[in-house]
Each structure stands twice: as structure tokens, then as C-alpha cells.
Amino acid sequence: MNLAVAPAEASKAASSAPEVLLDVRNVSLSFGGVQAIKDVSFNIHKGEIRAIIGPNGAGKTSMLNVINGFYQPQVGEITFKGRTRNNVRPYEAASQGIARTFQNIALFKGMSTLDNIMSGRILKMHRNFFWQLLHYGPARNEEIEHREKVEHIIDFLEIQHIRKTPVGRLPYGLQKRVELARALSAEPDLLLLDEPMAGMNLEEKEDMSRFILDVNDQFGTTIALIEHDMGVVMDLSTRVVVLDHGEKIADGTPEEVSSNQDVIDAYLGVAH
Amino acid sequence: MSGEASQASAHDTFPKLLLRNAEVFATRAAMREKDLGIWQTWTWPQVLDEVRALAIGLKELGLKRGDRMAIVGDNRPRLYWAICAAQSLGAIPVPVYQDSVAEEMGYVLEHAGVAFAVVENQEQVDKLLEIRETFKGISHIIHDEERGLQHYDQPGLQSYASVQALGRKLMQQDGEAGKAWLAEVAKGSGKDTAIILYTSGTTGQPKGVVLSQDACMWAADTANRFDNLTEQEETIAYLPMAWVGDHVFSYAQSYASGYCVNCPESPETVIADRREIGTTYAFAPPRIYENLITMTMVSMEDASAIKKKMFHYFMDHARKAGGDILDGKQVGLLDRVKYGLGEFLVYGPLKNRYGLSRVRVAYTAGEAIGPEIFRFYRSLGINLKQLYGQTEAAVYITAQPDGEISAETVGKPMGGVDIRIADNGEVMYRSPGVFTEYYKNPDATKETKTKDGWVHSGDAGFFDEHGHLKIIDRAKDVGKLNDGTMFPPKYIENKLKFYPNIKEAVAFGHGRDQVTAFINIDLTSVGSWAERNNIIYASYQELAAHPEVYRMIEGHVDEVNRELAGEARVAGAQIARFLILHKELDPDDGEITRTAKVRRSLVNERYAVLIDALYDPSVKRQKIRTEVTFEDGRRGTIEGNVEIRDMPRHGAGDAALREAAE
């Protein structure tokens, strides 16, 4: 595997002097009278696996949507790769290097696994529609180049056997994996995973965990993930941020967070 | 190339064959592997280059003549090359089942005393490292794939590519390295140990079967000659490398004849990959052939009415005429035309689907194959044949020559094999392919192999009137009825189990006057039959006791009895009475093993009441209480009142009559 993404050394460097990849400062988001996020600040270091946890309705998915530009926060600012951005559109966020997967799988059901993953490379394609239509010369060479990258990802995620299968026919666990493959094919700097293991059985979870660790390790991709399975969160993540009712209640290593009384009250213990 | 016996003496080891192939088949593909969706090809000279680089690298790392080297992983070209590289240095490759857990693998590695291990990926590296904590002898672990292993810094762990790079560097620096390697190859002789294969062993610890270069070479040449295999063949390597079949098919025979071995992209893509390659020589255990049929039948259920009708019409015709056409027998013109049309509409596309369009010879072995399944493939025009082999014989003992095919026998002794039937009915054989010994286990060797080279196969069998061997059962399971008739329980049970409605059967008869049987119905199959016939049931027990189900099973038992009647030796072992058990035999209750083998002693004990009832002609129904373990571990009891049916027995004439009628 020598997919030319950020080199794996990056993650090592990050551990000595953490370089901030994404910085969220005092972000608030509301929909009419509903305050989804209240004055939340946290950052994501380059090369880490950052978990965002919290009970249902805590604002986790809203937070991801803010990061990838789907929602515009009313207050606060976000700095990505050193550049403070205002009012980014999702496709701009994507072209800057943010890719994501969704809580409810959002694949093109009628298209094959291969085509779905290829679609993740759309922003890297330089030839226009008509060139592609002609499918000759530079356009063709470009497609071969992209296909090679995609094949590396297929190999990486061990989904060779479903390469040509329409994703609508795949079982849930595999669809999740295809979605991860599509996000990876954009060669992101920051990968957002919204409940990558929801609804999976233990074996599928273990597989997915291994893939997430391998992605982080091999490609040096920074990962932010939302997950409900606490075991998974504790095992995978470098640092954890905890949201409750739109507010940040804790931030730190898995050990720190799991011993934090507020977190235990909000999430693990006290009934709401 | 199989005909060139004169050359064989000069090429008495596989590394020598590799050198020959690199010259003789300089432009032919030796191996392919699908990688990143594209078939990568290595010609024989390229394979030589890879093997040589690895061998020189390994030698530098300290691999010596006589050392054992483990090989663990799925079928990958690099792992096959590692076998040859080890042999070229006079070291002994020991392929290990890649899915065995660390503990099992540890036993084999420690017993074989391996110092080097060439493994596929991180999963295997992790196992090896775990094993190394207790068995310190493993000095070098060489892995093919790098993924996930960048941050491992255990001593002796390095990548396959780095070992080859070391070999290549040495060759560049010093012209002698290549020559020294050739000298090592030249030192090898046919007497050397080629490989140690550990038999999975259903009982006790696995045993290491030592096969010499001569034995493997004999097996390869004999098999290639038997089916006229040439360098033109294409095969796909997907069965475990630790299994003797794969070693002979995908390594020995390929080196001997020069044919190309293809490695699939992943274990899940075998069927698609086989279709792309169009294999001409195939081998699979019966289970694989069964799965293909099941797949077909399931998709046919979903097909449109016209397609369904067409499929069944032509399959019926194939059943009637296909086998005879394949065997070159007389078939009427109309039938031929109809078969041709079927070939175009059904058989051809189906074979293409299976990746068997180009297949010249396909084998099944390992266990008994259902006659229906066997005939299904032959009727499609696929030359499916049976062979009988063992690890201890370097596979080949008997095989079916073209045109002499039967679903029930395993063929004639292959060239060079002597077979005799011992007094207790056990098949014994002697051939140039016979194993040298069990590694570090002289007692077991003595038990299995006589001084003059005869090997106890452990299987009971006999020759039929055409000189074909018929295997009936494990020798130790074969019993006798009180009147002296041979009683092979598994043979009878298998005949019953070939019916999809019967999931499990247990036959009794040793030391009794007559044969009786327990039967378990197959809930899926009988359940769907019940649905179609408006039979309502709430539980397995209720369905099993249903009179209609009894009538159906009675029909199956009767057919089995007719078949048995037609076979002189077992005609007396027809089933006199049977019952359908009120519960399924369950591994949770210890009645069958996890691999679905009946634990006879336990069944005898638990169901003693029922067995007694089977042998008491006055009893027509018997009450029984059995303790069961539920899936969550709770215990309970099931009560049943089981009906016993008496069966008429047939004379030999009945079977003949029926055959004539067909």
C-alpha cells in the first residue's frame, strides 16, 4: 500500500508537538428557538482519532454538519488547516480536504460499489464532462489513474468480492464499508465518521475498528467520529469531547472523560 | 511434458524442474494473481527470478539444509515460491492451515521445530508472535503483506520484499551467489524430504506426514499422464496450502507439466475469478459442488416462469441423455439435437456461470458425493470424476479413467499403485507415492505402514465386478450383524443423508440381528415441503411426527433398501425398522460434534430406550424423555412418543428390475 496521501510519519510528528488541524471556537447554532449547539470550542490535532460523544440530541451530528459546512453557525468561527473560514459550502469543505460518512447510509443504491467509490474522486477529476464523454486520451488516462487509487482502497478495505455488485443489494455492514471507501477515495485530511458502527454486530464492529485504526495509521488521516459504543470509543480514540444538550461538558483522553462526574451523570449514569 | 520420462531422472526435484521450465517454457505463464482488479502474470523465468532472490536471501539469513520452514496464509504466489525456495536450499517447507488458532498452530510449529516462517499478513504475524512467547525456536518471521505492520519492531520480523532485496543485492555484488545457489539446487536429490504436511486429524494431535521429492514427483507425473495434462492447463488455487491436494495440484503437477496456477483475489471472489480464467482442470471437495447447485436452485426459484420452465425441461433432458453423451455412448439423434439446443440455452450459460466452460477434467474427492450431485454435473457435460487419495499416498490411490465413471465407486488403482483388501475389509495400498514416515512419531508410522511398504488406509472397501474400488466406511466403524453380514453404518447413513429431507441418520446393527436407524428430518427442506402441501405444524417435534412426513421418509428408506439389495455385500444390511427422532441431534447436547459427526457412544446411551424399542418387534410406539440444553445454556426436557415403522426388505432381483425399468 503506497497510496500517496499524507505520509504516515505525520501522525508520529503530531504526537510530539500537536499541530492543530481544525479549531472550533465558541460555535453556537440554533434552529429557530432550538439551540442545537451552545458556545462549543474544541480542536482536532493532526493525525489523531477524535471522538465526539454524548446522549441522543446532544448536538453531535449538528457539530459534524457545522464542520463540513452543511450548517452555518450563527456565532463562532472555525479554522481548518490554519485558515479561518466563513460560510463555506459543503463542496468547498470537501475540496479543502474534509470527507464524511453518514449516520444513515447515503450511497447511490443502484450503482456498483466501484462506481460509488469512483464518485468520491469527482473533485479530483480535471477533465470536463465532454472529455469524459469522449473517454479518450487524457480523459481516459485520468480515469485509469483514479481507478488505480480506488483499487488500492478496495484492496485496503477488503471489498474485492463486491466490486461489481450494486450497493443496494449489499448487507448493511458492507454498505457502511463502501461508504467509508468512498470517503477515503477523496483522500481527505480530515475524515468525519457519523456512527460508523451503528447497527453492526460484534464481528462487524471489530472489523470496522480495525479499518479505522488502519486508515489512521497507514494514510495518516485525521479522524473525527461520533459513536455510541463506549467500548469502541475508549479503544479507538486519542481524545474525546463530550456534548450534552448542545454544550461541551468534558474534553480529554478517554480515561479522563470516563472518570469525569459530569459525563457519568449526563451520559453513563443518571436518567434524564 | 509428462511423457518425457527420460528427463525425469535429471529433474528429480522441484527446484530442478523450475530451472527446466524457465528454459523450456520461457514465454509461458506459470502463475497469475489478481491484484487491484487486474490479473498479474509471472512467466516461468520470472518465477525462477523471484524464487532465486528469496532463496539467496533466506540462505543469508541462515536457512540451512534440513531446517523446517513454516508457510502460513491463503494461496498467494509468494507463498508457493517460498516452498520452492526452501526446497532449493534443501530446507523443508511445512505449510500450516491458515485459519487454525494460535494454539493449534503452535503445536504443529513446535512439533516440526520450525525456525523460519513465511506468512501472509498481520493476522498471521500476530499468531506467530503469540506462539513465539512459548516456543522460542522461531527466529525469523517473514511477511508478504506490509499492511498494519509498520510499527512492529519485534526481532526477526521482516518483509518478504526485503528478503528478496537482500538476495538480489548479494547477486549483484557477487556473481558467485547465483552460482552457489545453483550448486545448492544440484545437491538436492529425489530422496530428500520435499514437504511435511500435517493431517488435520479428527482424533488426537495432528501428525506430520513426510513426503519425499520422489513421492511428490511420482504423484505429479502419474496424475499428469492419467489425464494428459500439459502446459496448456489453467487451474485455480483456492484450497488450503496445507492440504496435500493443493500441494500436488497447485505446485507439484504445475512444476511437472508447466501449467499455470491462478491465485484468486480473495477467498470470496473464487467463483468470479474462476469464470474469468476459465480453468481447464479443477478440483474441489463435494461441498463446493453442492453449494454451486444450491446457489443455482435458489436463483432459479426467483427466475421468471418461462426461464424456470426452460431450465427444468432441459435439465430433465440432460439427466436422461447428458451422461451418456459425455461417456460417448449411443444416443438417438433427436436426443442429441435436443441436448444441443439445451447446451445453447441452459447448459452452456450455466457452465459459464460456474466458471467451468473450458474444464476438461474436474475431480471431487475427500468424502462421498451425493450421486444426484455427481450426475447433475456430468449431465451438463462436465467431466466430473472421483478419485480416492490420502495425504499418506501423496494424494493418488485410485481415480476414474475417462468413460468408466460411476457415482458410487472411486475408480481403478493409478499407475504404480498396488491395492489389497485386508481380511477385515480394510483397503491397503503400496505405491511410489507413499509417505516416508510420520515426523518424529515412529509408533504411529509403525502402526500405519508395514515393513514392506503397505499402508493401512483406515478405510473399508472392496472392488466391484469392473475392478473399481468402492469405499464404504472407516474400517474401525464397520461392524457385523449376528449372521455375519457386514454392517457399514456410515455407508448406510450417507445413502439416507443424500436425500435433502434427511439431515442426519444413525444406523445400528453391530452385534444385532438386523439393521435399524434413527432419522432426523431437515427442517428447512421438510418445512418448505410442508408449506407447499398445506401441512401445519408448530415445532420440529410435531412436524417430525406427522404421518405424511413419515410416509415420505418411509419412501426414502425403501429406496435405500432397494439400492442396498443390489449390492451383494451389503444386501443383508437393509434397514428393518426406523424411527424419526423427536428432536434434532444437537452439538449443544454433545450428540454430534461441531463438524456434524455423530457421537455414537453418547447417542447409544441417551437413546437406549428407543434403541431397545427398535429391536423389540412388539413395540410400535415408544415414549421418551430427553434432557436438552437450550441455546442460552438453560436446560429442559423434551418428551416424545415416537412411532416406529417396519420396512419390507428387498431381494437382489428387485433392484435389477428397477434398474431395467429406468
Structure write-up:
The complex is a heterodimer of chains A (about 270) and B (about 650). Chain A has about 270 residues and is an alpha/beta fold. Chain A is about 40% helix and about 25% strand. Chain A starts with 8 loop residues before the first helix and ends with a helix. Mean pLDDT of chain A is about 85; it is low at about 1-15. Chain B is α/β, with parallel strands linked by helices. In chain B, strands 4-3-5-6-7 form a five-stranded parallel β-sheet, with helices on both faces. A five-stranded mixed β-sheet of chain B has the order 12-13-14-15-16. A five-stranded mixed β-sheet of chain B has the order 24-25-26-28-27, sandwiched between helices. In chain B, helix 2 (about 15-25) crosses helix 4 (about 75-90), helix 3 crosses helix 4 (about 75-90) and helix 13 (about 305-325) crosses helix 14 (about 335-355). The interface of A and B includes residues 148, 160 and 161 of A.
**Quaternary assembly:** heterodimer
Got a strand count of chain A? 10
**Total number of helices of chain A:** 11
How helix-rich are the residues of chain A, as a percent range?
Answer: 25-40%
Write down the Rg of chain B: 27 Å
Beta-strand residue fraction of chain A: 15-25%
Query: Structural class from helices and strands of chain B?
Result: alpha/beta
Query: What would you report as the Rg of chain A, rounded to the nearest angstrom?
Result: 19 Å
- Overall mean pLDDT score of chain A? 85
Separation, N- and C-terminal Cα atoms of chain A: 48 Å
Number of helices of chain B: 23
Large-scale geometry of chain A: globular
Largest sheet of chain A, if any? 6 strands, mixed
